[in-house]
Write a structure and sequence with these properties.
Blueprint (H helix, E strand, L loop, with lengths): L2 E7 L2 E2 L8 E2 L14 E10 L3 E2 L5 E8 L10 E7 L1 H9 L5 E5 L2 E4 L8 E9 L5 E6 L15 E16 L5 E8 L5 E8 L14 E12 L2 E15 L20 H17 L16 E16 L2 E7 L18 E2 L2 H6 L5 E6 L1 H7 L6 E12 L8 E6 L8 E5 L4 H12 L4 H5 L13 H12 L4 E3 L10 H6 L4 E13 L9 E2 L6 E2 L4 H11 L14 E7 L7 E7 L12 E5 L3 H10 L2 E7 L4 E3 L7 E3 L2 E3 L14 H5 L8 H8 L10 E9 L10 E6 H4 L3 H4 L3 H14 L11 E12 L4 E8 L1 E3 L5
Parallel strand pairs: 1-11, 3-4, 7-10, 14-16, 20-22, 30-31, 36-38
Antiparallel strand pairs: 1-2, 4-6, 4-8, 5-6, 6-7, 8-11, 9-10, 12-13, 12-15, 13-14, 15-16, 17-18, 17-19, 17-21, 18-20, 21-22, 21-23, 24-39, 25-35, 25-37, 26-27, 28-29, 29-30, 31-32, 33-34, 35-36, 37-38
The protein binds one DNA strand through strand 12, strand 13, strand 14, strand 16 and strand 21.
Length: 768
DNA sequence: GATTAGGCTTCG
């Protein structure tokens, strides 16, 4: 790595310089000598910004002073750095820091030497094999209650207020940030930079920042911060428990465990000392006379007049009010026409004014934005019977009004993208002609009536108990600790997997784990493996079973043993009999299930019969296979079965068999179905990415254990899902679902996860 | 090399 940052701990470099490097005194530098294995060290006294040479090569220049020979006549030298190395250095080199260069070239100057400057300069570049080391100083951070006028300090703070970068009246972008820390002292900082990237990437109140080299000035009797030379910032998500990953434009920065600790402490302090607004407002949750921040995607933009500009955005939810459409000339509208048409009911017009126009013009279609302090204003025109909702981003920057572009890596953007992808546009919408009707006005009375009807619409589900429980919003549920029970009224936006039979999972009621249903091949493979062990004749014909063996006529001979479990020392009718089989194939076992009540595949050990691997069913009954839980079961000896055999009338119930086989009742095969669903509440400010939700069999009124082998049941389930979530419908037209949902914890060695289960709810009879 | 803004308010 050509540019390295050395960390110094108690005066010692943690990454010492390579041993082949020898230090050279500045005053001994001469043109023509080989400095491949030599280095110079000094303090940066001047650094010039990165520029480009005429041929496009990056270039930067710094002046280094020999710190050990400060009284020497020749104690300063200029270093020219070229190419990528220049770019990297420009980002990490700051005035006053220690600078080391190795493998440089010395060039003699032909001009008169001035003051203490050397008559040579140095050239360094990656191509020439140079290496640059800078020594990170030990940063000291000043608490906000210890700031003094005229100092340049490093500090940490929680963002209490901010204005996203905007174009100032001077030459730079400006961002105003008010910080607070554990001292409860506030500091408002005015940050300027010609380069947007050098301003802190703050996305919300509660973010945590680290500022290096910020100048403190007194203004109106209060301390304020202002950017000074070499200002650098890191920004962190302020959420307790979120990964501590800095947002920064510089590729090299110091960040150590100590700093991680500081962030975590500030997060905890902020959690109880800063009011961080609740969940973000979605378009579906806007209210008239509300100022709100919106995370959205830009789908269209248009110039309106000199002082205003139109942004068309969507967030996947539908505004519950008719929204205005700002009339613009079709030729002025930038954006994908087809998409704009498809989104005509979901995208909203936001009119931005004055100082925001310039920034709005520069936005790229498709980018993700957070627009701060949008004004939702109810208004009605003279020729309208019904009022509509307007969205304005007023001029000025009060209240942090502004527009921020969010990177794709932002967690809110990731969530939004996933949600937008799940919003299916109806075929009819995409098939319609793309004639743009942007001049037409918003919805009319009919729309409003339809909307009211929808609100009163009956649910497609029926609650079978707990009628007195009142509805809870999904966001409350996801924000609360488990376990709890709730009633919800929600719409099913979409679900996974679309192949419904894949939604069947094995669920263990003991440890709550979900496991995939092993496929046929797994079982076949296990049977194949166990056929290699011949049945042990010593284990045949005991008091509780009678054994029969034979050898197959195939080329590769195979021994099969069947043990018929007796009752009262008697064999029973085949349809009442439990048999155990050794050495059978899948096909043979399948055939036997038609004839006998239950089948247990087994193999011989030296002194007992035992069950096969847990990936194989321990029991086959009819066409249903039963499995044990891989996570929490410990198999018990097979002879425990004799106790069931001794019962008056052995029922051979799978649950009962499971009980004698395993330490715990672990069997819950196919008892619960699991689908991955995204539930979404209409008119609430909530949406979520997919959550795992379990459904009881009685919800679908389909025995889950049989769906894998029944085309008819698979079709029935598909029809049910089509009724709950009709494909191609708009959100507004989706049916309501009323459900009871309970949250529960699933713990494994790695993490604790909250999962959800629908209970005491069934699909309405007239739905399917 | 200085300037920008200096949040405590928005309203077309």
């Amino acid at each position: 790595m050509p540019v390295q940052l050395l960390k110094i701990i108690e005066g010692q470099s943690e990454t010492p310089l390579p041993s082949h490097l020898q230090r050279e005194d500045l005053k001994h530098l001469q043109e023509g000598c080989d400095y491949t294995n030599k280095y110079i060290q000094g303090i940066v006294t001047l650094s010039y910004p990165l520029t480009k040479l005429r041929d496009g090569t990056d270039f930067c220049k710094i002046v280094v002073q020999d710190s050990d020979n400060s009284c020497s006549q020749i104690n300063r030298i200029t270093v020219f750095i070229y190419g990528k190395m220049a770019e990297d250095c420009a980002k990490i080199i700051h005035h006053g820091e220690t600078f080391i260069a190795a493998g440089f070239k010395v060039i003699k100057l032909h001009t008169e030497r001035e003051d203490a400057r050397h008559d040579c300069h140095l050239e360094a570049s990656e191509e020439a094999g140079s290496t640059i080391y800078t020594v990170a100083p030990k940063y000291v951070y000043t608490p906000l209650n210890h700031l003094k006028d005229g100092t340049v300090v490093n500090l940490y703070g929680v963002v209490k207020f901010f204005k996203p970068p905007y174009i100032s009246k001077g030459t730079d972008y400006c961002s105003i940030v008010t910080l607070v820390d554990q001292s409860n002292v506030k500091l408002t900082c005015s940050l300027f930079s010609g380069n947007l990237d050098f301003l802190p990437k703050i996305y919300k109140v509660g973010d945590i920042v680290r500022f290096h080299r910020i100048k403190i000035k007194e203004y109106n009797g209060q301390m304020q911060g202002i950017t000074s030379g070499g200002f650098a910032s890191l920004t962190f998500d302020g959420t307790v428990g979120a990964p501590v990953v800095p947002r920064t434009s510089s590729r090299v920065y110091t960040f150590m465990d100590e700093e991680q600790k500081t962030i975590e402490e500030l997060r905890i302090w902020a959690a109880s000392n800063i009011s961080i607004s609740g969940p973000a407002t979605k378009l579906s949750g806007v209210q008239p006379m509300l100022f709100f921040d919106l995370t959205c995607q830009l789908v269209g933009k248009a110039k309106v007049d000199g002082s205003s500009f139109l942004l068309k955005v969507w967030d996947g939810t539908e505004c519950p009010y008719p929204t205005w459409k700002v009339p613009v000339e079709a030729k002025d509208l930038e954006g994908e026409k087809v998409l704009l048409h498809q989104l005509r009911n979901l995208a909203v017009d936001i009119l931005v004014y004055d100082n925001h126009v310039q920034l709005a013009e520069s936005l790229k279609i498709g980018s993700f934005l957070r627009i701060y302090s949008i004004h939702a204003k109810e208004a009605s025109a003279d020729n309208e019977d019904v009022s509509h909702m307007e969205f304005h981003l007023h001029g000025g920057t009060c209240y942090g009004r502004g527009i921020g572009v969010l990177p794709e890596s932002n967690p809110d953007v990731k969530e939004l993208k996933e949600f937008l992808e799940s919003v299916t546009l109806t075929d009819s919408q995409s098939m319609e002609s793309c004639s743009m009707d942007i001049d037409s006005t918003f919805g009319n009375v009919t729309d409003l009536e339809l909307h009211l009807q929808r609100c009163q619409q009956l649910s497609v589900t029926v609650l079978t108990d707990h009628q007195n429980l009142s509805n809870t919003e999904l966001k409350t549920i996801t924000n609360s600790p488990a376990p709890q029970q709730y009633r919800i009224r929600a719409k099913l936006r979409t679900y996974k997997p679309q192949k419904l039979h894949q939604s069947v999972k094995l669920h263990c009621s003991k440890c709550n784990s979900l496991q995939e249903v092993p496929d046929r091949d797994d079982f076949d493979f296990i049977l194949h493996g166990s056929a290699g062990t011949a049945p042990n004749p010593e284990l045949h014909n005991t008091c509780w079973y009678e054994s029969v063996t034979w050898t197959t006529q195939e080329q590769k001979q195979r021994e099969i043993a069947i043990h018929f479990v007796k009752h009262d020392e008697m064999l029973q009718h085949p349809e009442d009999t439990l048999i155990m089989i050794e050495g059978g194939t899948l096909k043979e076992i399948w055939k036997l299930t038609k004839r006998f009540k239950c089948i247990i595949p087994v193999r011989s050990t030296e002194d007992d019969l035992e069950l096969l691997d847990l990936s194989a069913p321990f029991l086959l009954k009819g066409n249903v296979k039963y499995y044990g839980c891989k996570q929490c079961s410990t198999p018990k000896p097979l002879k425990n079965l004799s106790s069931i055999a001794a019962e008056q009338q052995p029922s051979w119930e799978p649950t009962e068999i499971a009980q004698v086989f395993f330490c715990y009742l672990i069997l819950n095969f196919l008892k619960n179905m699991q689908s991955r669903f995204c539930l979404m509440v209409f008119y609430s400010s909530f949406n979520t990415s997919y959550s795992s939700v379990l459904f009881q069999e009685k919800f679908f009124q389909i025995p889950a254990s049989e769906i894998l082998t029944s085309n008819f049941l698979q079709q029935k389930m598909q029809m049910t899902m089509n009724a709950l979530c009709p494909p191609g419908r708009k959100l507004g037209d989706l049916p309501w679902l009323e459900c009871f949902i309970k949250s529960y914890n699933v713990r494994d060695s790695m993490k604790n996860q909250v999962c959800y289960q629908i209970f005491d709810t069934t699909v309405a009879e007239d739905v399917v």
